[in-house]
Specification:
The protein is α/β, with parallel strands linked by helices. It is about 30% helix and about 15% strand. The longest helix is centred in the N-terminal third of the chain and has 19 residues. The two termini are about 15 Å apart.
Length: about 475
């Protein structure tokens, strides 16, 4: 993407399909960078099909998948005309491991293709996909699917995505791509790798472009490291402050908590923007930056613009259920909502932001533990040499048997199932109860009143009009 084509606003890639194709399409069509969340898209895909694909969008996109027999197999296995019966649970996909079947990879490829294809449909704007570096095992087929749909940008944070640029280079020419798999207890001189060979899927006649790569960083030192040591070109950086929603980088130095049990961030966690500018690579500021003042500050410090998350998360086009959006906006207007940075909630070990208040019943410690999605499982090598997969939010016995400690399970939440429920795709359990949601938001949640202006709904267009203001609004609305 040329400097002249750089977006002033990047829409955040939030949650599990909160940043869905509808939201990304709306933002991209207005001249900014729309972004879909790539997290757990394969499960989102098959659940939409099991719900009957009521708007027909998934089937429309699948009709454009470059290998029709793969699309046909997806429909045969997962599509339910008319949707599931009342109380019928969703069929779940096999959880990812170091190596999975070709069909399991194809589900992931197709899911990411569908989301990006729909986000790009009907306009000439730019669309990116956001993936979590720590969710390693589905990454390569996810990238390939997004590239088959013509994705323009890949954004990755929640870890150090040093190997992703090289993987994009390989996938762009249908070559085998590899990533090092983080395995707890694995000798450093005996690395375990994830490998993805596009030739096994019969799609190599499709011409691909290498998308730009934007790394999400919380420190200028990490940006410098990636600029020098990444396996390929890093085209941009998103500098994310700890006020951003979802996962935050942990504070530098010994962990200290405030009176609410939240991590305390200090001067060491502030990013040197002069050092960022000196890298000569475009960057955007994120984390409570989604205001006219935030945009002007970013531009004054040499940034190309800002990333905006929370305001878009509650727009009409986002994937949050209508009830969650309505209740949160009511809570914002009444001053009843709050955001807490929980150092224990995420099995990843990263601090994770949770919305509180607004009268929404969310997942808590009374939930019966189960792990059937497994995106946050990590690999570990047991003393007997066995490779296992574990999650500290799974049943305690399972985690301990896989080499974990009971202490590490305290306070953990099942983000996979909670975030899936927040978009209306919650699993039905054996007792007929649907999984309760988890709602994550940035600290800017309290500032949504300026966008909502007393309304219980607003559109992505309203967010851009607010953020860009009269000075820059023509930039967004020109497409």
């Amino acid at each position: 993407m040329s400097v002249s084509a750089l977006p002033m606003v990047i829409q955040g890639g939030m949650g599990i399909a909160v940043s869905n194709w509808k939201l990304a399409s709306a933002v991209a069509a207005m001249g900014q960078l729309g972004v879909v969340s790539g997290t757990a898209l394969d499960s989102v895909f098959v659940r939409r099909l099991q719900d009957g694909d009521p708007c027909g969008a998934v089937r429309r996109a699948l009709a454009n998948f470059p290998k029709p027999e793969v699309a046909a197999e997806m429909l045969k296995k997962y599509f339910k005309p008319g949707g599931r019966a009342p109380g019928e649970p969703y069929a779940v996909l096999p959880m990812y491991r170091q190596a999975v079947s070709a069909f399991r990879e194809q589900v992931t490829i197709a899911a990411n293709f569908v989301e990006v294809w729909l986000a790009k449909e009907g306009h000439q704007g730019k669309v990116g996909i956001n993936l979590l570096t720590k969710v390693q095992m589905p990454t390569l087929p996810s990238l390939y699917g997004a590239m088959l749909a013509g994705g323009d940008v890949v954004l990755m944070g929640a870890g150090i995505p040093r190997e992703i640029p090289g993987a994009l280079d390989a996938l762009a020419v249908h070559a085998t791509a590899t990533l090092r798999l983080d395995v707890d207890g694995q000798p450093a001189d005996q690395p375990v790798t994830l490998s993805f060979d596009p030739t096994t899927h019969g799609l190599t006649d499709v011409s691909l472009k290498r998308p730009d790569f934007y790394a999400i960083v919380a420190a200028h030192t990490l940006a410098t490291n990636l600029s020098k040591k990444a396996t390929g070109k890093v085209n941009g950086f998103i500098v994310e402050a700890p006020t951003a929603g979802g996962h935050n980088a942990p504070p530098r130095g010994p962990l200290q908590l405030n009176e609410r049990g939240e991590p305390i961030y200090g001067p060491r966690d502030e990013v040197d923007l002069d050092a960022m500018r000196a890298l000569g690579v475009p960057f955007w500021l994120a984390g409570s930056a989604g205001t006219p003042e935030g945009l002007e500050y970013a531009l004054s410090r040499g940034a190309a613009g800002i990333q905006v998350g929370t305001a878009f998360a509650y727009a009409d086009e986002s994937g949050f259920t209508a009830e969650i959006k309505r209740e949160v906006l009511r809570g914002v207007a009444a001053g009843l909502v709050n955001v807490r940075t929980d150092p224990r909630a995420s099995p990843t070990g990263f601090p994770f932001k949770l919305m509180e208040g607004a009268g929404i019943a969310q997942q808590d410690d009374t939930r019966e533990r189960c792990c059937d999605l497994g995106y946050l499982r990590t690999a570990a090598r047991l003393p007997d040499g066995k490779l296992v997969y574990r999650c500290s939010a799974a049943p305690v016995k399972n985690f301990v048997n896989a080499g974990g400690t009971e202490e590490d399970t305290v306070g953990r939440r099942c983000l996979c199932n909670g975030l899936m429920s927040a978009i209306g795709l919650g699993q039905v359990r054996s007792n007929g109860v649907v999984e309760p949601p988890l709602v994550t938001s940035g600290d800017a949640l309290r500032e949504l009143a300026a966008v909502a202006q007393g309304r219980e709904s607003y559109a992505a267009r309203d967010v851009l009009a607010y953020v860009l203001g009269p000075k820059h609004s023509g930039v967004a609305l020109a497409v």
